[in-house]
Design a protein that fits this description.
- One of its GO terms (biological process) is organic acid phosphorylation.
- This protein is of the alpha/beta class.
- The protein contains 14 helices and 13 strands.
- A hairpin with a 4-residue loop joins β4 and β5.
- α2 packs across α14.
- It is elongated, with a radius of gyration of 22 Å.
Length: 374
């Protein structure tokens, strides 16, 4: 053991945010402090990660811009996004304005909308943005992106020409999308939609069925929202079975429709899993290639995590590099793939101490693994 402690080790720490308790940067820092207590001579590299959910935009370089907007319930709030003038790219999290935490005390499953996110998009275009990288995780809405469309001047109307109420609860009455006042410069931007799920828009695996209950939807609400998204896809001329159309309450539906309207096809919309895109942008594979130990994690590790969120993306990179991978999580509802080591958080109130202890345990498990392997 003493010899192992004297052996310099490079450790890459690349967690997602632990929602509601620690940002990705905080989690990486606290885990690193725990690792340092055991691997005293280690080179520790912090690489906070995200998968398109809360905290994604702040991982990209650029100016942080804060402005007034509305939350999913239509209440005045402030939200922040990142604008990189050099690449004329705005990095926006749907969760920043339209996220679930802001309405957790009073969910709005039928009336919650993404108008506030549309305000951020329109603002970015006025600053010179030609591309929007939109993180689709963590939304409180199931409106098919119609709130964004309204903010950009495209209004959903019923058969009599009256504008629909905000949210997904009224979408089953949709007859048309009125583009008389559409903001063409904003709608015609290039879109990169980062998803943390690949759910279709509708059906038993769709947005309403899978995520509606998390947003406060009853069984009756789920059926209504599912019908609404189906109607939106019908009016928009889009296939509701398209993978990832169910992310963030169907936001990709509205954006794909608008971009196709303005460009003639959907070539200006890219839908990609968020974690691999962010890992590539941050050069994570190169960091991991230099590391003996890689630590990742998130609040809960479950079947969705294993399907391509941060922890699985990082553990795959670690396996490719031959590094030991430890996954830290508040709970494990599924077994980590491959040889990744699971370290659950201890049940104590202090989040920072939870993560420090997890870092210590990860380092000890690494030393034990190294000793076993010789």
């Amino acid at each position: 053991m003493d010899e192992a402690l004297r052996t310099p080790t490079t450790v890459t720490i690349a967690p997602d945010a632990f929602k509601g308790t620690a940002s990705a940067e905080q989690a990486a820092t606290w885990i690193g402090e725990g690792v340092r207590e055991i691997l005293k001579d280690a080179t520790i590299k912090l690489a906070p990660m995200a998968d398109g959910g809360e905290g994604t935009s702040e991982l990209f370089k650029g100016e942080r811009i804060t402005l007034p907007t509305t939350d999913a319930a239509g209440r005045l709030t402030e939200a922040t996004y990142t604008y990189d003038a050099a690449s004329t790219t705005a990095f926006i999290d749907v969760a920043a304005a339209s996220g679930l935490p802001a309405v957790a005390d009073s969910p709005v499953p039928l009336t919650g909308d993404t108008y506030g996110t549309g305000v951020l998009i329109a603002d970015a275009q006025t600053r010179g943005a030609t591309r929007i990288v939109l993180g689709l995780g963590g939304s409180a809405t199931t409106d098919g992106g119609t709130g964004i469309l309204v903010a950009l001047g495209a209004n959903p109307v019923d058969a009599e020409g009256y504008q629909l109420k905000p949210g997904g609860g009224d979408l089953e009455r949709l007859a048309n999308l009125d583009t008389a006042k559409v903001n063409i410069p904003a709608g015609a931007l290039d879109w990169v939609l980062l998803t943390d799920v690949d759910s279709p828009a509708t059906g038993p695996e769709g947005s309403a069925a899978v995520f509606g209950p998390q947003k406060g939807a009853s069984e009756e609400d789920v059926a209504k929202l599912d019908r609404g998204l189906a109607r939106l896809c019908e009016v928009a001329g889009l296939d509701p079975t398209t993978p990832a159309f169910g992310a963030a309450g169907g936001i990709a539906i509205g954006i794909t429709w608008l971009s196709t309207l303005l460009h003639g096809d959907a070539s200006h919309v890219s839908i990609s899993p968020g974690a691999p895109v962010i890992a590539n942008a941050s050069g994570l594979a190169d960091l991991i290639a230099q590391s003996g130990l890689v630590i990742t994690g998130e609040g809960r590790y479950d079947a969705q995590t294993a399907a391509g969120k941060v922890a699985s993306t990082v553990s795959d990179l670690a396996a490719d590099a031959g590094a030991v991978c430890v996954i830290v999580a508040g709970s494990f509802d599924a077994e980590p793939a491959g040889e990744a080591i699971a370290v659950p958080l201890e049940n104590i109130a202090d989040t920072s101490e939870q993560l420090r202890r997890a870092g210590r345990e990860a380092a000890i498990r690494y030393l034990n693994t190294s000793t076993v392997q010789g």
